[in-house]
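Exercise 7.
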Amino acid sequence: MKKILLFAVLTLLVSCSFNQTFSNRESDRDDAEKISKKFYWELLQGTNKDKIYELFSDKFFEVSNKDQLDKLISDSQQEYGIIKEYNLEQWETLVVKGSNSKSEYLLTYNVTRESGTTKETFSMLKEDEIIKIVGYHINYILPDN
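Solution. The predicted structure, written as tokens, is:
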């Protein structure tokens, strides 16, 4: 009877998952912010589009292709102008370490452009220890009149 009970307890312990969850740590935000800053740097200073594409996950390109991303970027620059300044407005992170590990990041920037302001949101995941962009959205903010 003791052997059966011991076996049952050991089986229960082995089947349990042990995770440690971290929400909204500044260090996680800083890690994600490196990716968005690199995106904006490549957008403003870079000359190689492939450097921008490398920041995006294959999951992003399952939904949108590179031409659509290029069009989104060029349309926003033509309609609202070149980026003059960008500031992190809101952020959320969730990092789970353990048997069911995952890392998710959401950063929203207030972006000042030549002809207006946009709110730009990056959704990111950590894949093979590298943070990649899985979503990028641009919303135009109507001016106050």
